[in-house]
User: Fold these one by one.
Assistant:
Number 1:
Amino acid sequence: MRFRPASLAAAQDSNATESDFFDDAASVSYPHLINVLRRGFPTVAIESEFTAPLQYGDIALVKISIGKIGRSSATFNYEIRRKQDSRLCFSAQITKSGFFQQLRTEQQLGYVVSALYWPQYDVPALGFVIQSPSASAPEVATAIESFLRGTLEGELAITGEQFGRHKLALVNEIMQPHKNIWEESEYFWDAIAKRELDFDSRQRLVEAVEAISFEAWQAWFQEHMVAAPAAVPVTTAGRWGERPEGSVVEGAADLQKQRGSYTVD
């Protein structure tokens, strides 16, 4: 079993966000307001509510609005969210059918063979699971790595046309109506728990998926899934008593020491 958490990208410049806000809302640029008109906004009170931490390297989406305008003061509301990273979700869509076809049907490594998108809270992850009665853990790990390399090169590599079909299929799957009242209720309560009160997470994920280009996805997949994967292999030795090469993690404390960028609250 192997899980690959998402990588974090560069942070967005908050000064540019404020300039954009004044250009759109006040029809005057922020530098002109400060430097020419000599109008300032000294802060007299701040109230904050933190629901989930941002890590260094996250892409932050900043929403600015005016909550109240008085005779001598104004209240600004800042809502900062982590941008959805759809690349692992999209990679799951691309790999899941081929993973089962090649490793279960053709290579017959085991009855339990699956590639699945497995996000935990705001941390996306892609898991590759094989339970094999005929192959050792190192052989299974090698088969998974070979499959990932073959996704980009060789006879079974993903083409631009296939990429487009996968994108359409994933968008349709994300926007599929809830199957029942319980599924719909779970969606809304999950959004409330995350303070995402616009209830637009599915639409934002669709927009992120549609923005991915074939070339950008290939480069990301090569860097993060093939060349230098940020993977956490989970194995049992079975009757062969063998494990893949690499350090052994005995518990959560060891994992945190080795991979300081992963935080679990």
Note: The chain has a mean pLDDT of 79.
Number 2:
Amino acid sequence: MRRTKIYPLVLVIWSILLFTYHSYHSHRTVSLQQEALTTIRVVVVGNVILATFAYLLPLRQLSRSWFVLFGALAASLLVFEKIIVRVLARYVRAKGLNYRTVLIVGTGRRAIEIARLVADHNYWGYKILGFVSDGHRLPNGWARYRTFGTVPDLKKILEHGQIAEPIDEIVFAVTRKSSHLRRRRRTRRSSRSSGSWTSQCPSSYSSSPCPRSRSPRSRSS
């Protein structure tokens, strides 16, 4: 019974750590391995903090074997919970539900690679609304998506709501040679005021979206 007194402290420590390590953020494109490693890291750090409190208070009833067993059980249950949530979420997204809309700024090679990456991973739950042209022509197979003007028009597109659906994320995939890059900073300010994520893609990337610059209020992840 005396050990049960430690559980409120465990709840506080674990809650803070899970938020600190962004365990409750959207993990649409995060691999299961990375998410599991983050969970194990939370458990290890939490056990160290808990052991420190147990030594200072002191809580002599908590033995080393208890910490080992508790840590292993906590890690196993948290990883299992992540797997279940991931499987259910991906099933729902593959059915076309719980999606986030994406506007891709750019029509060159990099933009097409990002669009193809999103299209090949439908379980991520992203819906491409269209493109904003940076001077390149969309290749065959992508012309079915609408092009909402050019990069200089992006500020007007965002402020005047020329796109019917809400824009959840904006991905900048404009080539470096484009003269429109000077206007990108002002455009990102407009996207912030409209409540959209903004992402800027580097020249090379793997099978994950580009890093975001802010997290405003938007639809559920």
Note: The two ends are 40 Å apart (CA to CA).
Number 3:
Amino acid sequence: MNRYLVKIAKQLDNTKERPHVLDALKKLDKNKGVITHWSTGSGKTRGFLLAVEKAQKEDREKPALIIAPASLTTNIDKEIKKHNLDIDKKRLDVFSYEKAVRIADKLKGNKYSIAIAEEAQKLRNADTKRTKELKELFQKSDKRLLATATANFNHVADIAPMLNMVSGEDILPEDRKKFEKKC
């Protein structure tokens, strides 16, 4: 273990929010949705959990929703404890993408104060059942936050389904050929 790096890590003040996290939260206050495109280890999880905490304080009735890869769903509870956040877990629905798609009809009956997609690049293909099922769910939520480290994989059009999701309406064509003509 590198003692120098351990010493530096201990000196870091982890109670202060990083500027890009504060900026995203301010943008979410002013808009219905935000896509965060931050690298691994840059505060994505803490950032979206702060958004959940704020949404729960502002709306004491509606639940919040987080959809994440199955391997990350158990991490949510650990991060809430780690950062000592005031999140009511009884009003927090956390599902894997697979489970959320399976129960999408049931979830669409809920009205969420905020819907969050961790690893949102999984929603980049508008033709998949996953994106089709979750798009409506996200668009009817009061606020939407899509967190990713890789917003587009193969083509700039990969971001169109995610932008449409956070905007609450179809502002960009999701078909690549139509996207290329328009954009």
Note: Residues 51 and 116 are 9 Å apart (CA to CA).
Number 4:
Amino acid sequence: MIARFSVVGKNVEDGEQHYISILSDVEKVVNVRSFVQHKPEKLSLSVDKLFPNDTTNKQLTLEYTQNPVWLQLNTLPTMASENATNALQVVTSYYANNKMINLLQSVPNIDMVLQVWRDEALKNKQLNSSLAQNDDLKLSSLFETPWVSVAEKEDEQTKNILRKDLISQLVSRKEADFQKLQTLQYANGAFSWFPNMPSSAYITSVVLEKMAILFAQEKQSPALHLLLNKALQFMEKEVKNEVESIKKQQTKGVKSVFVSDMAMRYLYAKTLLQNEEQVKWNEK
């Protein structure tokens, strides 16, 4: 659209012309609903809520697999990053690599299964990600968005899953991530978002929660024990200050007082750690 403005005086006339972009008010949205079926039976699913009431152009795609583990393996690498630099990225990458290692090691004859997948993928040329393979998931404006680079990254991750040295590669990445976490933890036990930034109770609570979940799987390594113990000591002080602040507000008559997400993560992590029989955090 072209917008023209003009001003006319007795002896002077001036004007401007501008091009204004008109964008469509229609947005394409992809909604997903997952389901699981363990045995032969009739399964009824309602898909009405997937489509808004005023939708005119509807499309439904059904995807299923007999190997849900493969879907997990495809998903976890998106959480892992070799170039993670901040505490949230590093702990998420460490968590994902741990889950993948435990998943692979818990499946009997996993090497045989991966070899079958390699052979089938090479035979059918299906080494691409789900986004790259499924045309039904592609929108008309896909190549105008960052999703193209996301699809290319997923392609590379899918190929990495089929590497013969996958487990050794994951172990190496996990160890690298843990070293990064040790570097990001300050002497007071806290973590910051990025190196050299101030200590953050929020960031520390997120790291503590994820590491506490994995603690039982780590066979209580001394390094992890020390990292968790220092983080707990820092969080205990932060939560104590929060509780004192809540009590002061209550004495002033404030009724709507809520515990922060940070405090809830700390309590959840401490509950997980105290459930481990060999862990005694309050010995001293």
Note: Strands lie at 2-8, 13-19.
